[in-house]
Amino acid sequence: MNFGSPEFVLAIVALSTGGWLVNNWIRARHGYSLEDEWGGKTERGDSAETKALKAENRELHDKLDTMQDRMVVLEKIVTDRGYSLHDEIEALRDKPAASDAGTPLNIKDRERI
């Protein structure tokens, strides 16, 4: 391969240009600023639609964070052992006494069974 031939020089220039084009295409697709041919950056101007979408996105993220905080509090309340224990005690209080509970012991007279 002759490194001084015009074909080799043209191949290097074509590969460099192709790489630069692919780089800018990827950057534009992901919202980064673009590079010009001298290495400077060209900032993208945000349209009104883009600004509205960013504001809505920020609003939704804030709302989601608030809901997650509330969910954590609710999970703590529901999984708290005292909460379910309180319900069990109240359920026992509401039950009528069974008629066949047996004979009550007279503790003062130390009655034996």
Q: How many β-strand runs?
A: 2
| Order of H and E elements | HEEHH
Q: In what range is the share of β-strand residues?
A: under 5%
Largest sheet: 2 strands, antiparallel
Name the strands of the widest sheet in spatial order. 1-2
- Radius of gyration, in Å, reads 38 Å
Estimate the global geometry from the Cα principal axes: rod-shaped
Q: Uncertain runs with pLDDT below 50, 5 residues or more? A: none
Structural class: mainly alpha
Helix content: 55-70%
What's the short story on this structure?
With 113 residues, the chain is mainly alpha-helical. The chain contains 3 helices and 2 strands, in the order H-E-E-H-H.
Word description of this protein:
The chain has 113 residues and is mostly helical. It is built from three helices and two strands; from the N terminus they run H-E-E-H-H. It has a two-stranded antiparallel sheet with strand order 1-2. A hairpin with a 5-residue loop joins strand 1 and strand 2 (41-42). The longest helix is centred in the middle third of the chain and has 32 residues, at 48-79. The termini are far apart.
Search tags:
single chain; 113 residues; mainly alpha; two-stranded antiparallel ribbon; 3 helices; rod-shaped
Write the topology of this structure.
Elements lengths: L5 H24 L4 E2 L5 E2 L5 H32 L1 H14 L19
Antiparallel strand pairs: 1-2
